[in-house]
Design goal:
This protein is mostly helical and 186 residues long. It has a domain of 105 residues. Helix content is 76%, strand content 0%.
Length: 186
Amino acid sequence: MVLVIIIVVIVLIVAIGLFAVTALNKLRGQRVSVDEAMAGIDVQLTRRSDLIPNLVETVKGYMGHEAKTLEAVTAARSATQQANTVGEKAAADAMTRQALANVFAVAEAYPDLKASTNFQQLQGELTRTEDQLAFARQFYNDACATLNRTMVTIPWSMFVGMSGVEKGEFYDAPEGNEAPPQVSFG
């Protein structure tokens, strides 16, 4: 009888230990997924930042007197490269989207620029990058939602403190930038 009780206690301890390991791995694994999703956003932000100097050089000759528009794009690119937190990245992203929208809007007044092969290629690349960035933002927010939901549900919530995992910060557009800029690709 004593042997049966000892075996039951050992089985319970092993089961609880295995469950704790599973819970910690689940929380940490979901945190890794959030970090990987942010890396996907970073890749697309970097890709867009790499395209911006080419865009500025292409339009410079056509839009010489539109210096403020081009400076805004350059400043937005710089802000993106210096952003570290999710909030800073989201703000710099919105700033860049608006600056690029302004460039494309101003480009409407320059038929030679709109007809330029380089400009059309860059515009196409930036459009594809924006689409990939939108997907990356959604993927990241989904990963955050999954992690955050797990962290507040029982039994996983009992292991949050032990795991050292923090909630995921959603990638939100800053106030006033909820709608994407409207760009005309004439």
